[in-house]
Amino acid sequence: MFDSIIRAWRWIKKIVLTIIRFVDNIVSWFENPNRLRELQEDMDNIAVAVKEKLENGDCGLIKCLFNTREGEIVGREESSNPYAEGMISDSLDEETKRVFGNKDMIVLE
């Protein structure tokens, strides 16, 4: 699962931020009514966030709906996919660091 989400970095829409804030940039994205409906209608869909250190030292973070049955991100592999988005930032806020801890991937419930 982790590898297929990381591979999505090449096609997802990316936004650039100074700092990634857990509630403002991650939780609120998953609270979008269309994404919530997709999660509720298919119990195989989960809300996932994956972070990685980019080659230039910035932090890359992918947030997406992932279907565990199919083993792939929900929707088409294109930048207009409303169920996947990437963020690039210099840093993470303290809450994001705390929630991720030493993990590169979290599942939000």
List the defining traits of the structure above.
single chain; 109 residues; alpha+beta; 4 helices
Summarize the structure in words.
This protein has one domain. The two termini are 17 Å apart. The model has no long low-confidence stretch (mean pLDDT 93). It is α+β, with helices and mostly antiparallel strands. Strand 2 (45-53) and strand 3 (59-67) form a beta hairpin. The radius of gyration is 13 Å and the shape is globular. It is built from 4 helices and 6 strands; from the N terminus they run αβααββββαβ. It has helices at 2-7, 22-30, 33-41, 94-100, and strands at 14-20, 45-53, 59-67, 72-73, 84-92, 105-108. Helix content is 28%, strand content 37%.
SS summary, helix count: 4
Distance between the termini: 17 Å
| Low-pLDDT ranges | none
Main β sheet profile: 6 strands, mixed
Radius of gyration of CA atoms, rounded to a whole number: 13 Å
Q: What is the number of independent domains?
A: 1
User: How much helicity do the residues have?
Assistant: 25-40%
Helix-strand string: HEHHEEEEHE
Proportion of strand residues: 35-45%
